[in-house]
Amino acid sequence: MKKVKIALLGLGNVAKGVLSIIRENKEQIVKRSGYEVEIAKILVRDVKKDRGVEVPTEILTTSYEEILNDNEIKIVVEVMGGIEPAKEYIIKAMEAKKQIVTANKMLLATCGDEVFEKADEMGVSFQYEASVAGGIPIINGISQSLTANKINTLYGIINGTTNYILSKMELENLNFEDVLKEAQDKGYAEADPTSDIEGYDAQYKLVILSSLAFGTKIKPEHVYREGITKINSIDMEYASSFGMVIKLLAIAKEENGELELRVHPTMIPETHPLANVYDSFNAVFINGNAVGDMMFYGRGAGSLPTGSAVVSDIIWILRNNVEVENMQPVVKNNLWEMNIKDLKDIESRYYLRITVSDKPGVLGQITTIFGANKVSLKSVIQKGVKQEENIDVTLVLITHSTTEGLIMDSIERLYDLKTVKSIDNIIRIEDFR
Amino acid sequence: MKKVKIALLGLGNVAKGVLSIIRENKEQIVKRSGYEVEIAKILVRDVKKDRGVEVPTEILTTSYEEILNDNEIKIVVEVMGGIEPAKEYIIKAMEAKKQIVTANKMLLATCGDEVFEKADEMGVSFQYEASVAGGIPIINGISQSLTANKINTLYGIINGTTNYILSKMELENLNFEDVLKEAQDKGYAEADPTSDIEGYDAQYKLVILSSLAFGTKIKPEHVYREGITKINSIDMEYASSFGMVIKLLAIAKEENGELELRVHPTMIPETHPLANVYDSFNAVFINGNAVGDMMFYGRGAGSLPTGSAVVSDIIWILRNNVEVENMQPVVKNNLWEMNIKDLKDIESRYYLRITVSDKPGVLGQITTIFGANKVSLKSVIQKGVKQEENIDVTLVLITHSTTEGLIMDSIERLYDLKTVKSIDNIIRIEDFR
Ligand SMILES: NC(=O)c1ccc[n+]([C@@H]2O[C@H](COP(=O)([O-])OP(=O)(O)OC[C@H]3O[C@@H](n4cnc5c(N)ncnc54)[C@H](OP(=O)(O)O)[C@@H]3O)[C@@H](O)[C@H]2O)c1
Ligand SMILES: NC(=O)c1ccc[n+]([C@@H]2O[C@H](COP(=O)([O-])OP(=O)(O)OC[C@H]3O[C@@H](n4cnc5c(N)ncnc54)[C@H](OP(=O)(O)O)[C@@H]3O)[C@@H](O)[C@H]2O)c1
């Protein structure tokens, strides 16, 4: 039996999943890869810390040099996260002709190019299936199995925490703050949940997916981003009354060499396959000009699902090229030059929730403003609410398809009306056409 | 720009999709594979036949030798179907060191081994993503991206025609025969629909999927098979009243080295992701011990979706090894020896629809028979129907989990009862546990 030594950088959630899979599924790995995998070293910051996992203390180290200089270690698995020192470590490992597996979306999204180029230069493998949507093989799917296609659109529910929160809000009619707190208590959401609930995590992942799908260089700042903190259970109820649900959607569309990239809460028809993606599940829905509509669905995070992607990447390397030059071109994001569409030019339908004073003619004033901007309204719902002696009214408007620019301009004009008390929420509606 | 010549065997539905993608997505293919792909030869039976597609007549040929002896042709794409001469042609191409792409599920399911071994012996690539579920990358998914897992269960809606028929029956409350006829008129079902509606097509596909997922040799006769011809819109209605839908499901489960393999109409909870797979869409739902639940969803057939898989396979070969020895072990179905579970030992819940005479004590007699076989009933519904002067009654029984053997024994005993007029349908219920 051939043996191979690998090293892990980090011993957190993902690393523990990798450890457990390598132990538990030893037979599968041996038979499928032809190798017995030995975890020879694990890099940590503190070798004494109790991480609730049994590992021989002699394989823990705080010195990266020890891993780098060990010629028997053929594969370095970076599961520590963050940009530095992760990037430096990966580059050095490549220079030492080690093959790399990573789960680091932040690194890939912000400085992937540098790492891709180094992998190419050194002829080593650089695998990162785990970086997006955990166990779902979306990276391989796009970069190996859908290559015959010109991808038209890509829609993803790619952040488990926010999907968990929105699902709870929808199904149990709860408020954002309450669900967030519960999720934090249960460990489903981080103590600092900013990266998830403000959409940064999904933004990074969309950068990675769309770079591959459209073969072009994309940076986080190309992706418009909006989190879910403003979503209210009232919006959920209205959505439901229109036959829709609200999801944090990552959206990428290509048309005539122009790319539209955005992450924001989105109302989608409840009959769409993505509408049934509940809880912390992830899904990516793709339309390609040959394959048509397709969807990948599964666990987007967690120790074992993410470990599944990492270990499958290790097996891929072992099967293909652990001893030889990597032959797959690793850089695939420099095939086309594309423009990024300005947010104001994107087309969408919109849901608007507005509070107005209940005075005669208000609705007329409002529709006039939209009309002047050529925004036509599909439906208007009016609901009375009593606030501090004044009678205020909630107006819910659904527009026909229009542009973001025209909507924003209309909103600005609405603020000029004395009768408009507040614009409570604006949510884009996706019809998947 | 590097150029590569390929040949197609056959110019039917799939071949036309391949042609159209190679023309339409030329730029994508060139950029992603690094090659300009030229279709140098197409094998047909009759060069004069009008196939509604424009191809230069000089590339059509009825002589396979012409393709075989052309050393410039590096890849042979077999899209003619059937066992012979397809098998002979593939083997000869491999012996001539050509790389192979096929969509031929029948060939793979019935004599895949021989072809796998030849590919291994000759060191050529043998790609067959298109053989199961059209454009959905389920073959790559299982054989490359989920390799870290021990797969526990696999459930597939892998025949588009039957899913189309069942969807229509369910959603429009129609009868099997009417929908079948309509599907045939529209070209969605073949003039001879046996392979689809009797479950042979799904059986072949399950052989291919489960061989890969469980790394063991599986033959069509290992898979219990039952078609959808007995499904009645009455069964659909009852299913719906229990919160279930009926799908033709391909099921594979592994436990302690024992495999359970079957294709049959199945009642599944309407909340399960597979329940929402309508129309001619396909989906494969997998549970792996690391990745958990995951699902692949998309177009399972048709010219372009199937062509998408074929052309992506061509690109894979071009990227990796068109000029060199294939390095991926191609035979992955001989890793484990497994027993095939006897049908009588499978565990399931059951739906039974029975016609009985409306006499006192009938229900008692029936429950006694089930009780004697330790089959306990979860619910019993009784519905009066008047037939030819006698008052007959429809009984619908839902059992708790039991074995197929005990159910079949109970059924046999039911026939002994004079009051039991007919056993109208027996449908297995899957709870995905
Ligand atoms: N968790 C998921 O479900 C998931 C899913 C997909 C992708 N990812 C990605 O996977 C990576 C790891 O995530 P995680 O959840 O496993 O993180 P985590 O639980 O926070 O673990 C990080 C580990 O890295 C170690 N580490 C951090 N900086 C280090 C340094 N400078 N030197 C040595 N060791 C260092 C930490 O050491 P100490 O133990 O000594 O602190 C810890 O063991 C991240 O890139 C993340 O984005 C995670
Ligand atoms: N259709 C789908 O959606 C789909 C999806 C997945 C997989 N597949 C598989 O793909 C394969 C092709 O299916 P298809 O639907 O494209 O079939 P098809 O439309 O019936 O086309 C078959 C083609 O092969 C040619 N052919 C058959 N036997 C031949 C022989 N002995 N010598 C030369 N040419 C021969 C036929 O030639 P003539 O034109 O001269 O008769 C015809 O052009 C099958 O294995 C099928 O199972 C199909």
Automatic annotation (TrEMBL), chains A, B:
Top-level class of the enzyme under EC nomenclature: oxidoreductase
Record keyword NADP present: yes
Cofactor or coenzyme needed: a metal cation
GO molecular function, one term: metal ion binding
Entry keyword set: Amino-acid biosynthesis, Metal-binding, Methionine biosynthesis, NAD, NADP, Oxidoreductase, Sodium, Threonine biosynthesis
Binding-site residues for L-homoserine, renumbered to this chain: E190
InterPro entries registered for this protein in UniProt: ACT-like_dom_sf, ACT_dom, Asp/hSer_DH_NAD-bd, HDH, HDH_cat, HDH_CS, NAD(P)-bd_dom_sf
Active site: K205 (proton donor)
Binding site for NADPH: K105
The enzyme's E.C. designation: 1.1.1.3
Reactions it catalyzes: L-homoserine + NADP(+) = L-aspartate 4-semialdehyde + NADPH + H(+)
GO biological processes: methionine biosynthetic process; threonine biosynthetic process
Residue span, ACT domain: 351-428
Pathway(s): Amino-acid biosynthesis; L-methionine biosynthesis via de novo pathway; L-homoserine from L-aspartate: step 3/3; Amino-acid biosynthesis; L-threonine biosynthesis; L-threonine from L-aspartate: step 3/5
First and last residue of the signal peptide: none
NCBIfam families associated with the record: PRK06349.1
Similarity comment text for this entry: Belongs to the homoserine dehydrogenase family.
Name of the protein in question: Homoserine dehydrogenase
Annotated organism of origin: Clostridium lentum
